[in-house]
Predict the structure.
Amino acid sequence: MIRVPEDYYYTKDHEWAQADENVVTVGITEFAQQSLGEVVYVELPEEGQKVSQGDPFGVVESVKAVSDLYAPVSGTVIEVNSSLVDNPSFLNDNPMVDGWLIRIELDNEKELANLLRAPDYKKLISEK
């Protein structure tokens, strides 16, 4: 069973975003991880880098495919999960917790309204 926490936001590209005031933690969903298979490489942005909603910010490579990662919101990257660079397997084991990718200081809270909520994301992945 794929976990889809109710308090998270989601993109159609299968990233999740958890907002805590003006800081948004970003990762890939369990659906994305299962679709990709075993993740073997992760490329993430530098801290301090600006990202824009919908634009690529990194890459995840698995034994099956290479996929771009897309920013769910615009802002400044304030933290990078650097342990993923050395241990991309964290994404395989628990993409919703240990496998978080980056934390973004949100530029505009209104952008969260452009993202999917859990019921809509569940519907999206059930159609796949």
User: Anything to note?
Assistant: The chain has a mean pLDDT of 94.
